[in-house]
Amino acid sequence: MAERTYDDAIGALNTLQTPYEVLKKRWDAGIRIDEGANDEMRKCLARIGYTQDDLAKLNVVHVAGTKGKGSTCAYVDSILARYRKSHDLPKKVGLFTSPHLIAVRERIRINSAPLSAALFTKYFFEVWDRLEAAAASTGPFEKPVYFRYLTLMSYHVFLQEGVDAAIYEVGVGGEYDSTNIVDRPTVTGISSLGIDHTFTLGETIDKIAWHKAGIQKAGVPSYTVRQPPEAMEVVEHRAMERGVKSLRVVDLDHRLMSVNIKPAADFQRGNASLAICLAETVLKKLDPEFKTSPDALPKEFVDALEQVVWRGRCETKVDGNVTWYLDGAHTADSIKVAAKWFSDEVSQKTGPCILIFNQQGHREAVGLLEGLHSATQGSVKFEHVIFCTTSIQPANSSKKDFINHTYDASSVSELTLQKAFAEKWRSLESNTNPETDIQVLPTVEDAFEYVRKVADRGAGASALITGSVHLVGRALGSLEDADAL
After folding, report:
1. Which residue, 213, 252, 306, 321, has most beta carbons within 10 Å?
2. In this structure, which CATH number among 3.40.1190.10, 3.90.190.20, 3.90.1260.10, 2.30.42.10 belongs to the domain 315-480?
3. Tens digit of pLDDT for each residue in 147-175?
4. Every domain range in the chain assigned CATH 3.90.190.20
């Protein structure tokens, strides 16, 4: 058999994506979520040779939420990695997040570094072959779909690599998410809750909270940031229902007052405060000598919080006479946070402000524009607004990590959503800025070329790229000519 490559692995993985046509039929039939998926995940875990006792060795930190779960996970990862350097504990730190920006292997990290292409390929096919062997032995079954397969693979990777502290970011919701098959995590955390994935999770915050709070486990400590009253009530009820060891509401940690958190906003301090609690819980279990002080954070924590890098979130890049501001915000609440961050960043700048926006897979995508427009009124005037797909030029389109079968291909090629976005923005601007230049362009590179031409005509430009992690990933890949971040 010819040696199997990283491209082979990604090609096989892409066959596990659910095609748009299948998704649409489910949506039209009102099928919101697969409540039985995790029963199948547990069977697949056994098929590849693992038990709950094996997963317990990972000392899992499990994080759900609407806003800030990714940042919280990045903070925990950074704290544990920094502590490891000075104390040799944990032995190895694993991090599982989604989606990826440029390469699928970014989703599975060890000691903060994406899995190498060689290791990704090795472990991908080990799981693939074990599932194939199980099917040959016990009868055929469907492999887990894309995200579930990667979740399953991450357990295999971390156990084979000797990881003894693993941080897991929930994909969607919590209760029925494929990351929620670990019965004995070390600690669970819930970041700020709001409205997201309403078709799947429900249209009210209490329904959404029910899903997110489903990661809480019997006998396991749980932490949550302060939530809206109706959400908090659900979190508390589910904690009692599950029999958690304890539920603590985390307020802003006063020890962060002298720490340089970026961006310097309460929402980010809230994420850092939650991360501190989660990291402390793991370290107390792993290191009998670990001590906390009510007055000051350990130096490792301070360094970790100040130096954390979470790509594509509140990220700034200077490229010639263009300053790019990138944030993968894709919910109503997070888009407002991104708008506020951009407004603050450009408040003292001259030169035109430009918006590049896309959200290809969000069922309420047009509504996001209203929040963005409202949040920037009176603080930022976008002279130029560009709506483009996440497609890239043919020279780069062979990268299999970018293939997404869950999008409506005809909608992408015909720029259907982008034209709808343009029409929506035009109506929002009709009374205040009817002269706004609005462009619909087919690719990220086309958008970049347009921005650079605008910048060259004057004293540079400031461009906000937001609405989609996929859009931000394509942008960063183009700016850095990188294979992975």
Report:
1. 213
2. 3.90.190.20
3. 999 999 999 999 999 999 999 999 999 99
4. 315-480
**Which candidate, 153, 482, 122, 475, places its Cα nearest to that of 316?**
475
Amino acid at 98: S
CATH T-level fold of 6-307? UDP-N-acetylmuramoyl-L-alanine:D-glutamate ligase (3.40.1190)
Evaluate if residue 397 carries a pLDDT over 60: no
Q: How many residues does the chain have?
A: 485
CB atoms within 10 A of CB 338: 26
Print burial letters for 158-190: b (CB count within 10 Å at least 16), e (below 16).
bbebebbbbbbbbbbbbbbbbbbbbeebbbbbb
Question: Residue 423 contacts by C-beta under 8 Å, 6 or more apart in sequence?
Answer: none
pTM over 0.85: yes
Average pLDDT, the chain: 91
Residue 398 has pLDDT above 70, yes or no: no
Model confidence band, residue 459 (pLDDT cutoffs 50, 70, 90): confident
What is the longest distance spanned by two Cα atoms in the chain? 68
